[in-house]
Amino acid sequence: MFPFLRPHRHDVLIAVIGLLSGLLMWVLGLHTQGARSFVAPWVALLPLAVVSMLELVRRTAPRTGLVIGTLALVADQLTVGNLATVVMFTDLMYAAVLYGTPSAARRIPVATFLITVAVTIGLLAWFRNPEALFVGIVTGLISFGPAITGVSVRNHRDAAETARLRAEQTALLAEMDRTQAVTAERSRMARELHDLVANHLSAIAIHSTAALSIDDPATSREVLGVIRENSVEGLDEMRRLIGLLRTGVADAEPSASPTLNSLDALVEQAGTNAGTSGLTCTFEDTREERGPVPAPVELATYRIVQESLTNALKHAAPGPVVVRLGQVGRSLTVEVSSVFGNRSGPRAPGSGAGLVGMRERVALLGGTIEAGPANGGAGGGGGGARIWRVRAELPVDEGNVKA
């Protein structure tokens, strides 16, 4: 409520030094003007004390300090005068511009300049003596000089504050970009890990359950062979992925990215894994033009087929699983269909992460994907069997691929 009750320590120091300096000058008889017969010499201490008190509010109430300080300076001119009073008044003028409102910072320099010019011209016209210029110079030094200095310091301070805020905003944006990049990389790693191991682990889970439930040495041996094959392949893929994630490992050689040419081998392997589940996997490539396809599109297509085959192995009823690859214009289409319904025998649980990963991959490439049940014989089920179909369209133009 009362800002002068808690002045800044620097302001207190300025006030004390100014007051002590003025008292010392008064004791030594150092005055700025000659003796005034109508005013006692000690009266000069009153403006000195007032200006010293105003130094305590130079930051908290700069406009009030300047107004009262101006009146004290005028009163000082009617006494023998004190140089400390004049010096502290220049500091009040400087503080009014530096700590005052933006409008005050604009108006005070203009006002002091006009006052300086008016005083100089007025004294020259009144006394008609060139020595009157010295009075105008002194007026400018104690009013316009501190005001223009305050403007310069204030501009530098505002520029520094603007630069600091800009640096903080830049750092905040950089942190947001870093967080988004980390999140995107974690999502990509999650998709890759899921797609790499889900197929093999699903086959291992189904065949191990079958091995426990079938009391036939020949069948059990065949099932254990499939389990071992998927275990070795899954472990090998995990090692390659870990090698890619590590840095500074000399023997970590990156594996080749899956391509469309690998789809037939993928479907063949899925057919082997699904043999005990009554599923038959076939691959149909109906593309007429087999030009180059962007690597991200090839990888996404491979992973979509891989995840769809894994889901068929987990959930599809006995019947055909058909993978179709085609191209319409500049869009690559991939479709995986299987018989939709309940089935007996071992099944692997699902979490839904595979469908989420497929949608994320397609969205990153600017394509579309549909996954859900469809009636009819599109999957070769016939007889009105319900079909579960996954169909994605991906752009093959390099300019349209987002990632």
Any key phrases for this structure?
403 residues, alpha+beta, Heat Shock Protein 90, 2 domains, five-stranded mixed β-sheet, 10 helices, 61% helix, rod-shaped
Notes on the structure:
It is a single chain. The protein is an alpha+beta fold. The protein has two domains: 3-170, no CATH class; 258-403, Histidine kinase-like ATPase, C-terminal domain (Heat Shock Protein 90, 2-Layer Sandwich), CATH 3.30.565. Helix content is 61%, strand content 11%. It is built from ten helices and five strands; from the N terminus they run ααααααααβαββαββ. It has a five-stranded mixed sheet. The longest helix has 82 residues, at 132-213. Residues 248-254 and 377-383 have low confidence and may be disordered.
Number of domains: 2
- Ranges with pLDDT <50 over ≥5 residues? 248-254, 377-383
**Structural class, judged by helices and strands?**
alpha+beta
Number of strands: 5
Distance between the termini: 60 Å
Estimated radius of gyration:
44 Å
Strand content: 5-15%
Mean pLDDT: 81
